[in-house]
Fold this sequence. Notes:
Layout: H1 8-19, E1 27-31, E2 34-41, E3 45-49, E4 57-64, E5 67-80, E6 83-93
Amino acid sequence: MMSGHLPKAVLEGLQDAQSRPENTARLTLRAGDVVVPVIEMTDRGLTVARDKKLPLRGHVDIYKGTELVRRALIIAAALEPGRAVFEFKQQSACGATAPLDFVHGQDIEGYLPALD
Length: 116
C-alpha cells in the first residue's frame, strides 16, 4: 500500500471505515428531510450521529444504501456528545415485494376450480 503518499486525514478515514462493523457500514436513518448515518444498530435500538434537526421520537426509515430495510417508531434513550441513542418502540422489516394478505398456491374451499 502506498500510504506514504496519502494525507493523514485520508488514512484515518480509511482505517475508520475498515474498523466499522459490516452490518452498519452503509446504514442511514431518515426522518423526513433529515438523513444521518447509523453508528450502531441492535435488535432493541440504534445509535446515530447527533443532528439538531433529528426528532427525538417518531417514525423513521432505515436504509442500507438506497434500499429501504426497516421502518421503525423510535424514542430517544440517551443524548451523548456527537451521538444519540434511540430505542425501538415498534419496527418492521421491509422486503423487496409487498407482503401477501392471502394464502398463495393452496386450494381454498368455497372457490370454484380453475377452468382448463
